[in-house]
Amino acid sequence: MADEILDILQVVADEVPPQADTLRELDARLGDGDLGITVTRGFAAVAIGFPEVRGKPVSDQLARSGMAFNRAAASTFGVLFASAMMRGGMAVKGRDDVGQADIVPIARAAFQGLKDRGKADVGDKTLLDALAPAIDAFEEAQQSGKSVVEATDAAVQACRAGVKRTIDMQSKVSRASWLGERSIGVQDPGATAVLFILEAVQSWVHANMSDE
Ligand SMILES: [Mg+2]
Question: Could you tell me the distance, in angstroms and rounded to a whole number, from the CA of residue 22 to the centre of ligand 1?
Answer without folding.
Answer: 13
